[in-house]
Amino acid sequence: MNDLAPPPTAADLRRAEVIACAAQLLVEGGLGEITFRNLARRMNCSTTVISHHFRNKDEVVLETYRHVNARAAAMRDAALSDRAHGAVRAIEELLPISPAQRENWAAWLHFWSAALHDPVLAAEHAVGLYQTVERVAAYLRSTGMEDDAAQGAAQAISNALYGIAIQALFDREHWDEARLRQEFRRTTAYALGPDMAARQV
Asked: Which pLDDT tens digit goes with each residue over 70-107?
């Protein structure tokens, strides 16, 4: 039995191109920039090309949000695959340190406010947050931590990650890489207790 996924079609590739373009427009100017006209202008095509692949702007926005979340999940899973360090050290690599990480955080944050008023986006948002906590908890359990402790520690690590990343995005002048790492470790040490935090660095 062949479990390989079929190769993407031309339509799949075109949809992916539109979504990548929408994600870039989002980072540059916010959700208001995602329009068929702006996408067509950026991609040097007609709006008909965009409407051929997407029914409306809402569909583009939702798919862009899923794209941003998938990109963040891939970064998270790659960080947690590095067993040379503990969970705190692995997750701290997801802070908005590199340009790619800052871009993804900025895109995600644009969606955050929209999710407050859109049940579909809110559901996507909740799933992403839940998956991050569960992925970190699974990592901690794999190191021998008990289930309850792993779940609590994962929630604390996730809370620290999101809180510090958001502060850094709004105040980049005062949040360089060294401070991001220092505050993340300090906050997780406070939340987890210094002994547990030390084991996860």
From this structure: 988 888 888 888 777 777 888 888 899 988 888 889 88
The two three-digit tokens of residue 29, written as one number: 């100017």
Name the residue type at position 126.
A
Give the DSSP per-residue string, 94-118.
Answer: TSTTSHHHHHHHHHHHHHHHHHTT-
What type of residue is 67? H
Token reading at 67: 């794209």
pTM: 0.81
Q: What is the DSSP string of the chain?
A: ---PPPPPPHHHHHHHHHHHHHHHHHHHH-GGG--HHHHHHHHTS-HHHHHHH-SSHHHHHHHHHHHHHHHHHHHHHHHHT-TTS-HHHHHHTTSTTSHHHHHHHHHHHHHHHHHTT-HHHHHHHHHHHHHHHHHHHHHHHHTT--HHHHHHHHHHHHHHHHHHHHHHHH-GGG--HHHHHHHHHHHHHHHH-HHHHHHT-
Q: Which two tokens stand for residue 159?
A: 């809370």
The residue to which tokens 């906590």 are assigned: 133
Question: Measured between alpha carbons, how far is 101 from 122 in angstroms, rounded to an integer?
Answer: 22
